[in-house]
Write a structure and sequence with these properties.
By secondary structure, the chain is an all-beta fold. It has strands at residues 2-3, 10-11, 14-17, 21-22, 25-30, 38-40, 43-46, 50-51, 55-60, 68-70, 73-76, 80-81, 85-90, 96-97, 100-108, 111-116, 126-134, 138-143, 153-156, 164-174, 183-186, 192-195.
């Protein structure tokens, strides 16, 4: 969904890729110049094919926006992503919170549960690594501005099955100095990680 009105919301949209080649993928994007709405419970599911750009569960495009992203979900079971995977990506002043990214297969570069550019928080996000190959790093939350990156979780495995996942780069709960509530949960053997 592409919401172009300032106060418009995007709720419970889903993009599914099973094959072919596509560019950038959005569960939903608020693209108004000063978007003030909410992107809530939007999803992306990829089981095959090739994505040449980035993947966003929820997205706010403009730096003047004040809207919020929450409860996004990205599930990658196969295929390839040429760019970066984001549960939620907020270019404005708002937050990107409570996303869940599940990686069970496929290949990709960096993975972020929540990513904010301005003052918004990237908190409460979860990245579950169960399979596949990540050529870069994995962040639960990343704030490029002044926002908090607390309360994020990265989990390897589910406690039952071996996690045949490879991460070339780092696993980071949050990029800010306050790491309160960030969790790295290793529930499986068999994973390969560059740095914790």
């Amino acid at each position: 969904a592409d919401v172009r009105t300032k106060n418009g919301n995007a709720v419970q949209n889903r993009a599914e890729i099973t094959g072919g080649t596509v560019g950038t993928v959005y569960g939903a994007s608020l693209t108004a110049a000063a978007a003030a709405g909410t992107a809530d419970r939007n999803q992306v599911a990829i089981s095959g094919g090739s994505v040449t750009g980035n993947v966003h569960g929820g997205h706010i495009a403009n730096t003047a926006a004040t809207g919020q992203i929450k409860n996004s979900e990205v599930n990658i079971a196969g295929g390839s992503v040429g760019g970066t995977v984001y549960g939620g990506y907020n270019s404005g002043a708002g937050s990107a919170t409570d996303a869940v990214v599940n990686i069970t297969g496929g290949t990709m570069h960096d993975v972020y549960g929540g990513y904010t550019v301005g003052a918004g928080a990237a908190t409460g996000n979860i990245v579950n690594l169960l399979g596949g190959s990540v050529g870069g790093s994995v962040y639960g939350g990343f704030a490029n501005g002044t926002g908090a990156t607390t309360g994020n979780t990265i989990a390897i495995g589910d406690g039952t099955n071996s996690a045949a996942v490879t991460v070339t780069g780092d696993l980071v709960g949050g990029n800010k100095s306050d790491t309160t509530g960030n969790i790295l949960a290793i529930k499986s053997k068999g994973a390969h990680v560059g740095s914790l």
